[in-house]
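ZP: hey, is the (2R)-2,3-dihydroxypropanoic acid complex queued? I don't see it on the tracker
AM: it wasn't, my bad. submitting now with these inputs:
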Amino acid sequence: MKPRIFVTRRIAQAGLDLLTPHCEVEVWPGEEPPSREELRARVPGCHGLLTLLSDRVDEELLAVAGPQLRVVSNHAAGVDNIDVAAATRRGILVTNTPDVLTETTADLAFALICATSRRLVEGVDWVRAGRWKTWSPLFLLGQDLFGATLGLVGLGRIGRAVARRAQGFAMRVLWYDPSIPAGSVPAGLHRCDTLDELLRAADVVSLHVPLTPATRGLFDVAALRAMKPTAVLINTCRGQVVDTAALVQALQEGWIAGAGLDVTDPEPLPADHPLVSEPRCIVLPHIGSASTATRGRMAELAAADLLAGLRGEPPRHPVNPEVLAGRAAAGAGC
Ligand code: DGY
């Protein structure tokens, strides 16, 4: 009997093509995620789940799925939507899709850095509104990137890829990441010992941290107030790293010069939210990894790791490798 898989949204065909010869696959057909009730109704009896960042996979859902569930393969680098500890307790392997989206997400972060610093969307809106009457020496003045200081909060794969782009723009690059020992980073990047030190020096602050209890709400009133009034904040990691109410106040009261957000809290952000109408804020609908090639690679990787987990083979990106060790000790395959 083929293992049963539930894929919680339509993904690139390359991923489904890997799964269908080996599994009985059900794909959620909606444009929007399955509701909690719909998710609960579909997971019982599944051996594998291929999930997205919009699906909350918690203790209760894992219990509803049943003891035959072996793998939850997340079609994302972040796994903050999954209770990994609960999966580990149940011997369920969790996998994710880092690496393949690094450069694509860094491209988008850098696009937001350019667009926010040079006020591109305000310019587009001006033209679209029929307000472009003349060239003007003092109109839509932004901040130069050439020679400016970029402050990276988080220096993982994506942070480093953004740093490489910034060096091409002749920016000075600072970073703050308490998880990285000094001396283990590319030359030419300057480490800050505290977040405050980085915030006080940077013209562009770009966030590249996973969402954890330590990073949730990291950008609060105090952090935003520590930034230069001419600086911009870029967020392409997770919306909950920034206190949304504090950011609205920071923009409205001019504590900072602008924000470029690919992620927000809440997500999606309602159209009547103050951040959407704030002229100095660019909001994108979480499209950091949204290139055709990268979404194809994410789907393939998520599917391949799901199959590996079902077969008892090592996946490329296990999030809780201790489950594999436990299975090996128990001599369990699929
Ligand atoms: C991820 O993979 O975590 C991204 O946010 C999705 O693009």
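AM: back. The chain has a mean pLDDT of 96.
ZP: great, adding it to the tracker
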